[in-house]
Here is the input.
Amino acid sequence: MAVCSSVPISDLLDRASQGSDKLHALSTTISQDLNSHFPPIGRVIMPRPSMCHTSSLQTPSDKQQALQVSESDLLSLARSLLQAWSDPLLMGPAAQTISLLPFSGGNDIGQDRISQLINFNFLLSCFRRDSHKIDSFLKVLRCRATKTQPQMC
Amino acid sequence: MGCGAMMKSVMEVLLLLMLFFTAHAKEKSYSPPEKPTQTRCRSPEKETFTCWWEPGSDGGLPTTYALYYCKENSETVYECPDYHTAGENSCFFNKNDTSIWVNYNISVVATNALGRAFSDPVDIDVVYIVEPNPPEKLTVAVMEDKGWPFLLVSWEPPHKADTRSGWITLIYELRVRLEEEEDWEMHHAGQQKMFNIFSLRSGGKYLVEVRCKPDHGFWSEWSSTSYVKVPDYFHREKSMWILVAVFSAFIFLILTWLLHMNSHSLKHCILPPVPGPKIKGFDKQLLKNGNSDEIFSALVVPNFPPASTSKYEEMLVEYLEVYVLEEQELMLEESKDLLDGCLKSENSRSDSDSGRGSCDSHTLLMDKCGETKEEERQTNRESSLIETQGWKEEAINHDTSGRVKTWPSVYSPLPQYGSNPLDKQSSLETAKQHSLSTSSFLTQAGTKDALGPSYTDFCFSNKQNHLHPQTLAHRELQTRSDVNISNIGRKRSPATEYVEVQRVNKEDMVLLQPVVSRCGHIEGCPNLPKGEDYSKVKGVDCDNRLLLQREGTGEDVCPLVDQETNGEGGNCYTSSTVSTTQKPTACMYTSMPLQEETALTLNGYVDTATMSNLPSC
Here is the structure.
């Protein structure tokens, strides 16, 4: 039986934040790429869906709130968000899966092409935000874990 | 109804009201304001944000601008809380009004007396519009690393950005350039707040600036420029190089000089010379000069070949050989050596009596037959009194041993002996010489096997040359051997045969007969004549006869006395009958009384000086 050598939490958080950073960067690139295909006018008149499927998750809305959240809560929030986005399209109306997270409605892209595009664009925007949240939470946690290495923050 | 639709309905109502009011306005070329343009919104620390707009033309009338916004999923329209903090045409949202991860819908409305203008609405999320302030407290210092300078640049994040809690993560970038240049040198610093710049120009003035960016945001502006001057270290560097160059040039010169000085030895070391001939005493310079005499004289080793005059003379042989041929030719060979031997007394061990020409080893001959020869000389001397005719033949002959024999042209004399033995005193000495020289003897010399047993040697003096031919002409000794030789001719030339004096006839001729006896008595010299075969000349009697005398002179001599001669002229001749085979052991020692006071030298020769005392008839 192999013995696992302990890895410092700071290193783990550092590695995680690096991953989340890349994730958000990718989401941003995709969203901007997709928006460039729409004429500017179309963006304006585009109907906006109600809410992201992860909006039921209570996340801090400003810095003060975020810094007041405990590390464990921050970590669980990050983990929940990540889980929500593992397979977002499953969260459709047809999906009646039992999950721990409260979701309001599902993500239904639609049947016609325009609505599909609109819905997909919205979905990407939600993903971009949530990836940013994950990245932010992890980086706050990383900074809190490396008290001895202030250069990490 | 969403936030945007609400905004639109409000705008339309207001517009109608304005149109109603402007209907009563003066007839001017006034126009309603142009639509303002929203330029941007930025948040420096992700806590507050500011929006700026660009107003359009105002239409000649005072125009007011208003910003309205609403938040995501809320239909409440809010107006900008702060138009002044951020400056003209801006709206500042403070922390209380700022919510993150929330979409804002913002519109700007320009209003003048004639109309209103709405800008395009903008959706923003605060976390996406983060643009921090430039880094602060930028410091640049010139540091030294092993004698080479570098710039140490350090800074601090903008004070508003909360990087310590990790709320904002900033990465930095700095740029450097020389004062006189235009292109910047970019350096990415990551999350660190200090940086080192190398490869500086000595004495250059540098400009350094730094900026920052959040992990997902916009780059900040460049910080304020920091100036730095690098001290002049090139001066020292250049002088060092000059020193190095001078030193190496100096060393190079020394090496060249050393090489030049030792070029010769180096050449020998690298290219060893080809060894030349080493002959002792051989001088190359002489060879080059072309004087061969000097060269070879240098090569000559002194004392080689060993040459002593005595030996040299001994080796130089001149023979007088008597060849017995069928044609009855007689060849005489003169032996210088014999002559000298005759002249010398005891010193001469030369085999003057022996048949030298046919004997290769004179010395051997002499040693072995010396005694015998002496006796024979004596005998021959006496016989020389008898007139014999000298041979005046000159011929060059080669004996079997290959020697060239020269025949002396002169020949022999003996004035004293013979008919007129007593001449004048003056000629006595010459006569003495002559007697010696003219003593002819017949000897049997030991020869090699190649030579025949019959051999006749005549001993002629060298000094014959000095003799006056006139005085001696009548004294010529003549030897006729034709009669006797005929008996002898057993062997043909070049073989030589020994003859012995048989008798002297009345005509003053020596009759010769071949000697058959062999000298086996003498060691190593089988052909040496036995003592009995030879007779010494005792004297010449009154009848011109050779008085032969035998005398034992040594151990090796075994004289066999056949006859005794007395000075009174008994038997004037002795004939020795010798058997062909004489036993060597038969050695009888007989001493013959000397007749009178015949002065005999040690070697048995008759002293001619006393010959005059001989009784004469």
